[in-house]
Write a structure and sequence with these properties.
Blueprint lengths: L3 E4 L19 E3 L3 E3 L5 E3 L4 H10 L3 E7 L2 H10 L8 E5 L4 H14 L9 E5 L5 H8 L3 E4 L9 H7 L2
Parallel strand pairs: 1-5, 1-7, 5-6, 7-8
Antiparallel strand pairs: 2-3, 3-4
């Protein structure tokens, strides 16, 4: 049974490929679109909030592992009012998701939640990250966004089959 779902951010939760380029001040349009001072925008994908709400109702822990500058991730999540969903957010300026996931699991363990790898699901838009996750962390269930699932709500059905 899955007890933790870890999400990537860029191209997984929203349509922009690199929020580290965003510059303040930010403005939020209709709650799901963020514009930076240079006019760059990102849009939260449909059903992201609904999926996060449903996962929380099921008492699933939520985390984020993203290759972005930590201060940018924090500010974008806060501006979009998404930060409160996540129990742990690990944002690093390097692409090694298996290291970020290890850090997430360590932080959860330190706060009293120990998980086996088969109780963890990782959702990312790039399958390239999965090899090292499996190699170093074991049987984590990995879903490639837009290939294994085409809508965030489909993650809920994958959760139930685990």
């Amino acid at each position: 049974m899955i007890k933790l779902v870890i999400f990537d951010a860029d191209k997984t939760l929203w349509d922009h490929y690199n929020i580290s380029e965003f510059e303040e001040p930010f403005s939020v349009i209709d709650g799901n679109v963020l514009r930076d001072s240079k006019g760059r925008t990102l849009k939260v994908f449909p059903n992201v909030r609904r999926t996060l709400d449903e996962l929380k109702k099921k008492d699933v822990k939520l985390a984020m592992a993203t290759w972005n500058f930590p201060h940018k991730t924090e500010k974008v999540l806060r501006a979009l009012d998404l930060d409160h969903y996540f129990d742990v957010i690990v944002s690093r300026d390097f692409p090694f998701k298996f290291i970020m996931i290890s850090e997430i699991m360590r932080k959860l363990r330190e706060s009293g939640t120990s998980l086996k790898s088969e109780e963890v699901m990782f959702v990312d838009d790039r399958r390239a990250h999965f090899g090292n996750v499996w190699l170093y962390l074991g049987k984590i269930k990995c879903l490639e966004m837009w290939k294994d699932v085409n809508d965030h709500l489909e993650i809920l059905s994958k959760l139930e089959r685990s």
